């Protein structure tokens, strides 16, 4: 799969990549360093910038141990995983089916309906939180899994993403399949799905990250610790009169590792997208 | 394309029903309720809130700052994301690692990211000033300066966001058949010709998505301001969304917040209409 | 094909059905919540998640209350910052899920003004009200009615790093509340220490820092100590108040220290403490709880003294005050029971247990005197108790306190960042005046 580049081209490519990597990683390395030292040490060496700003004097994994031994991070972590396991497949399914309809068919009111879909993500969630809470409260869904998850399933943004990609599927393919007598479920599973793996992976990651970072909504709906997710637990390190800095950094690093662990293996589906679908172009 | 595929004219509607009902109940209904709050005070219809807000210099200042930051931030992020995506689309050894690295900032919590950047930007002893002093440039005030703070926030937001938008563009790039590039090369097309005449037209649907999503995210951005500057110094980072958030969550003034959000919505729609016009597939034939 | 159709149809039906059912459920719920005289469980909305925070500290206190078995209280805890958002969405939307609410002192007027809190006058006799120290009680009153009695209060003392002072060869003069240090003295010592310890600014050591820098809660004590007021008597006027001579003088004094790099820039209120605990700050104006934080973060070389006075204003000393109050959700279906619990936790056995466990400055006169007369009480708490009775300066009592604290807090930050003092205060006064219009 490697391309053919001349040596000087490769050198330039790597120089640019490494430079961008430094810019990207630098603040994060600092964060990692902060998570591996005591609070006192973080501030002792924070300013002015020196060697010990990035390299701890006394290395300690205590904050990572504290995450689980003292703050029981496993519970909110598991809750977030449950949220994701339910909402990623459901979100992909519901939104992709609707997107398929928007991308494939012409029907009366399509423009207006699609406009409404677009508007649905152009309003900040913070502002609509109160009426939304009232609705969910009306369902008696406060402090329940449905209350936590249901409002996040349908997403105008995910739907829009699917639509944009589905429009690229040549109509002739679907036409041909229809002529062959294929039903819509078959067409969706046999034609749309395989040629859209990159977008499904992208949309899946998008929903994944939305849920992973979900904050205000779980804060309002999840009243009991039993269903509060990860980000809420992360916020508890910042207290009224003091902050547990190293734990906060450790929590942030830990909560970044999981999405990365997802991203790394799923990347190959981007690459596979073209090779497996030979229907493009 | 017409409805050549099906005789069932209800099918398109049936397919969108699950998503659309959920959107109506959990998104559109709360949105309408919220926007209406701008027109009501104590249950009575009135335009007073609009009047007050439009006479408030704070509102106009915030609107101007919102426009100012976005004129720079939206194009900047899209261009960087596009370049990043082109880079990580190259097939050199270890590229998957780089892809992951560029995606990394998006996975770190915004709270922690802003604290780290705040330390880097520190006016007295921060790393960036140490770095500048190597080149003989005097220490800058960064987030403490009313002329620089806004641009510092652009840097933080772009650092965090570009890897995310890169991912979408990359998915689009991966959808392009490589043989198109081969034939372009044979025709003797240069790098920039290939990018503008082939790559961009082929991924303009994804680009449109990225533009619209990026615009929405950036116009509604306020968390870095909330955590770092509180809208200061001297109101220089007080974007409209932050003022709207403050109105609803600190001042308990939901109708003021609703008016501002309405203005923001109109602003987003206007920007997106322009983007639709430029990137709409109907305008051009397919490559 | 059929399966597919069926699936989507079911999903659609379920969604619409849910919408319909939901509405009726909501009505039922609101109808069913009356007083039954049976067992009642109250929910207390509060802050401080975790075993080391309020959640853990109050657990035995709630257990004690719940022993009676008839009315029980369950705590629901959020992190400090989150509590305000939760109240703003849930209580403001009229949710009946909560009965008792922990209210940050400055928020009382705002919540009360919007009808979110139930007035508690009928549950507290005048004698009982008189048990509270004045500042704490006043903080719970809006429009002449008692909405939120105090749980405890807070006061400030001046902390300092003895190791740094020793290294710089500086001795803090003898002082007490009758013979205070002056801010001018402190500034002088801080400047000397800075010159000695970090002359070229490469160590990141600073002379003075305020724990809640750029927040009105603490910073306003500076102009207050020169005779400046926080707000006019009507609760709205700030023009000519927060930009008068006392304010300009105090703010200029502060800004000069920043310009001399004796006071740091760019550090947020969340971070100041940790700079003090890690030996980067010589003098640190902070709450009585700073001692506990020092112990927890491994800082051992600290000492304390009463808040300084400005030279020539020795009789005007003002210290920040206010902490947490207890409010009752106006939409609660158990207001009587809730008020009973609030009383128990602010005046009764619950408050005794709370003060014992939390170690804050009490808001009850009786308990303040107890500390002042107790030879074994920690020195900073004795100072705190004395300040609470004498120098505690009432905050701005106004329904627009949030606008007030946001705008004025930004002005404090702008002044720290070098903006012209008079201009910043003038523009803050104008902005606050504008935003107060809606409350008149």
Explain this structure.
The complex is a heterotrimer of chains A (about 280), B (about 290) and C (about 450). Chain A is an all-alpha fold and about 280 residues long. Chain A has two domains: about 5-60, no CATH class; about 65-275, MetI-like fold (Orthogonal Bundle), CATH 1.10.3720.10. Chain A is about 75% helix and about 0% strand. Chain A has 15 helices and no strands. Chain A has helices spanning about 5-35, 40-45, 50-55, 60-70, 75-105, 110-120, 125-140, 145-155, 155-165, 170-180, 185-195, 195-215, 215-220, 230-235, 245-275. The longest helix of chain A has about 30 residues, at about 245-275. Chain A is globular. Mean pLDDT of chain A is about 85; it is low at about 275-280. Chain B has about 290 residues and is an all-alpha fold. Chain B has a single domain, classed as MetI-like fold, CATH 1.10.3720.10. In chain B, β1 (about 40) and β2 (about 45) form a beta hairpin. Chain B is flat. The two termini of chain B are about 20 Å apart. Chain C is an alpha/beta fold and about 450 residues long. Chain C folds into two domains: about 40-155 and about 320-390, Periplasmic binding protein-like II (D-Maltodextrin-Binding Protein, domain 2, 3-Layer(aba) Sandwich); about 155-320 and about 400-440, D-Maltodextrin-Binding Protein, domain 2. Helix content of chain C is about 45%, strand content about 15%. Chain C has helices at about 1-30, 55, 60-65, 80-90, 110-115, 125-130, 135-140, 160-170, 185-195, 215-220, 220-225, 245-260, 270-275, 290-295, 335-345, 350-360, 365-375, 380-390, 400-415, 420-435; strands at about 40-45, 70-80, 100-105, 140, 145, 150, 155-160, 205-210, 280-285, 300-305, 325-330. In chain C, α17 (about 365-375) crosses α18 and α19 (about 400-415) packs antiparallel against α20 (about 420-435). The radius of gyration of chain C is 25 Å and the shape is globular. The relative contact order of chain C is 0.16. Residues about 1-35 of chain C have low confidence and may be disordered. Chains in contact: A-B, A-C, B-C.
